[in-house]
Amino acid sequence: MNIILLGPPGAGKGTQAQILVEGRNMVQLSTGDMLREARTSGTEMGKIVADVMDRGDLVTDEIVIGLIREKLEAGGASGGFIFDGFPRTLAQADALGELLKEEGQSLDAVIEMRVDDDTLVRRVVNRAEEAKAAGQAVRADDNAESMKTRLMAYYKQTSPLIGYYYAKGNLSSIDGLGDIDEVKARISEILG
Ligand code: ADP
Hints:
The protein has helices at 13-24, 31-40, 44-55, 61-74, 90-102, 117-133, 144-158, 160-168, 180-191, and strands at 3-6, 27-30, 81-84, 109-114, 171-175. By secondary structure, it is of the alpha/beta class.
């Protein structure tokens, strides 16, 4: 089973993806994680993406589609893939459809996680404060200023995917408020 977790920054996609990895033997493909890895590698691409990410803007479709292509071609997900933070644009959504077709795979569900904007901003700012208090690295884009840009990128570029997948017949929407287990249960209900 291949699924997409769709939602704004701070919706809890990464947290729920991790739960699905542990519980269902799925493989998480997070373009955010891949890009954070790329930027620490000191490669040319890493340098280019670092600035864009810290601002909260989207990295080019070409780069992220290339990253996903590599992972899909490598294969090896017995429980299927969870796409987390990808696709984020219509061009990425089209490319994913093509890539899955080439691999003889299907897209089984798109789960939209709904969380109101005030809560999103609060969660992200809290995440940064908790990391700081624990002496951990704070994501450079986890601040109120970058969060505005990230939310704007979501509404301008990513939210059209809700209609796109609705029209394809893949979309399920859940309430992303509540504790982690409650949200997990809502996702389980959809995936069966
Ligand atoms: P979030 O918590 O905002 O969902 P991610 O960890 O998924 O954050 O992504 C962090 C940043 O990485 C984004 O703000 C963007 O700059 C970049 N990024 C991640 N995935 C994509 C993508 N599919 N397309 C373009 N940029 C991406």
